[in-house]
Amino acid sequence: MTGIGNSAASRDKAYFLHPYTNLHAHETQGPLIVERGEGVRVFDDSGKEYIEGLASLWCVSLGWGENRLVEAAARQMRKLPTYHVFGHKSHEPGIDLAEKLIGLAPVPMSKVFFANSGSEANDTVIKLLWYYNNALGRPEKKKIISRVKAYHGVTVATASLTGLPNNHRDFDLPIARILHADCPHHYRFAHDGESEEAFATRLAEQLEALILAEGPDTIAAMFAEPVMGAGGVIVPPATYFAKIQPVLRKYDILLVADEVICGFGRTGNFWGSQTMGMQPDILTCAKQLSSGYLPISAVMVSEPVYRACVEESKKIGTFGHGYTYSAHPVAAAVALETLAIYEERDILGHVRSIAPRFQSRLKALADHPLVGEARGTGLIGAIELVADKATKAPFDPVGRAGAVVNGFAQDNGLIIRAMGDSVALCPPLVIGESDIDLLFDRLTRSLDQAV
Ligand code: PLP
After folding, report:
1. First vs last Cα of the chain: how many Å apart?
2. Distance between CA 387 and CA 383 in Å, rounded?
3. Would you say the CB of residue 146 lies under 6 angstroms from ligand 1?
4. Of 119, 122, 125, which is best to mutate to test ligand 1, by the most ligand atoms within 8 angstroms of its C-beta?
5. How many CA atoms lie within 13 A of 205 on its CB side?
């Protein structure tokens, strides 16, 4: 251990390979060590206070220190801390959570499959889609459409769905049979003078052209986040899904709603699908399902998808997919308690009452000299920084966003996240008015320092 030292920061640099981190920069920069949390705030190991403007990674809806979740976990830990659900085994927390989610689904859904992360949920969907089409005797119908700037996870298959260069480059991805359709970001990709409506129409036409070029009989499904999160919080035009869904239906292509960020109230409706007018055949969710306190994710499937899988299993035997910790009883108990709190405290009503203030403070940042666009809906948003507001010229790849976020904002007591030139905001759903103001005051000061 000579030369490493005893501080947590030096031991971090010595031993810890960090996910989703600039590894080279980390060797000099080192970690920010977060020690504890309380409400919408976290505190580092020097006691410095931060507003958590991204709810950890878009997940801590109820904030830190929610004792009911701790108690729910402890109760379940004492009773049945772990058990699997393979074969025909089951347990009440898993059954109760499946029933609850089916009751909450935005469109009629038939069954719930549980996994541990958003990536695993979406990876499961890819396998289900392939199984489903084999069941229906359509072995060619296997390609999956995602979108440029989508984020669906980091497993080999879901990183392939993800439409961001860092997730592909030098990982030898994407795998075959994954297609990327256009990104519905009007500010960046609309033609000069093109209305949002016309832009949405054009994207639907381009989607149809892609489907026809590939062959409709080769395409199983399209994945879409209602609001794209890690790609930069991109809210599609209001009529985007109304225009693309008929195209998908025309060619018998299923729609998968990735609600990993949008689910559970984030966009001002319980599901992002409701905000964006999506009628998915399959829905995935995670993160706010347990307020991020324990890892759990879910895949909801419609009856036709489920029924085809049952028929296939009847033919070939065991449906050979599942995780040791699928429906982990402690995670399921925490998720059930989270959903109970959402209802009892009317968290959705709170989001609806507070979102106008969040959005008006956000949109006001469009006047800042560094900000090209301020966009969002409900309690999620982003600002996109530009080198030139008139031409929308981006900063270089390292950009100004990283400096704002990792330097000035952190110094000012605000944790947010840079994604390319965009800075994302996604605070705990329980945030109040005065903390929204403080969040934006700290962000504005950080932007002023970066000019
Ligand atoms: N899907 C979306 C929309 C996400 O935002 C994320 C993660 O941020 C994922 C999937 C992957 O989830 P996880 O990191 O839990 O694997």
Report:
1. 43
2. 13
3. no
4. 119
5. 6
The architecture of the domain spanning 70-344 is: 3-Layer(aba) Sandwich (3.40)
- C-alpha 26/C-alpha 438 separation (Å) is 29
Of 253-257, 267-271, 390-394, the range with the lowest mean pLDDT is 390-394
Cα–Cα distance for residue pair 304/271, rounded to 1 Å: 22
Mutate to test the pocket of ligand 1, among 57, 260, 266 (most ligand atoms within 8 A of CB): 260
Q: Is the CB of 226 within 6 Å of ligand 1? A: no
| Token pair for 255 | 């729609």
State how far the Cα of 179 lies from the Cα of 390, in Å rounded to an integer.
Answer: 33
Distance (Å, whole) CA 126 – CA 322: 13
Does position 2 have pLDDT exceeding 60, yes or no?
no
Considering Cα of 93, then 324, then 264, then 223, what sign does the dihedral take?
negative
Q: Would you say the CATH fold of 70-344 matches that of 32-65+346-450?
A: no
Radius of gyration of the chain measured on its C-alpha atoms: 22
Strand order in the sheet with 422-425: 371-377, 380-385, 422-425, 417-419
Ligand 1 contact via 54 beta carbon (within 6 Å): no
Structure tokens of 392? 């929308």
Q: Say how many residues make up the chain.
A: 451
Q: Is the CB–ligand 1 distance for residue 258 below 6 Å?
A: yes
Closest C-alpha residue for ligand 1 atom 12: 118
- DSSP for 37-75? EEBTEEEETT--EEEETTHHHHT-TT-B--HHHHHHHHH
Encoded amino acid at 366, one letter: A
Q: Note the helical H segments in 192-328.
A: 196-214, 240-250, 272-276, 303-316
> Closest Cα partner for 315 from 143, 142, 139, 131?
131
Ligand 1 touching residue 230 (CB < 6 A):
yes
Amino acid sitting at position 230: A
Residue type, position 92, single letter:
E
Task: Indicate if ipTM > 0.90.
Answer: yes
Query: Which CATH number is 32-65+346-450's, of 3.30.70.100, 3.40.47.10, 3.90.1150.10, 3.40.190.10?
Result: 3.90.1150.10
Alpha-helical (H) ranges within 254-326 are: 272-276, 303-316
pTM to 2 decimals?
0.98
pLDDT digits (tens, 9 = 90+) for 11-30: 999 999 999 999 999 999 89
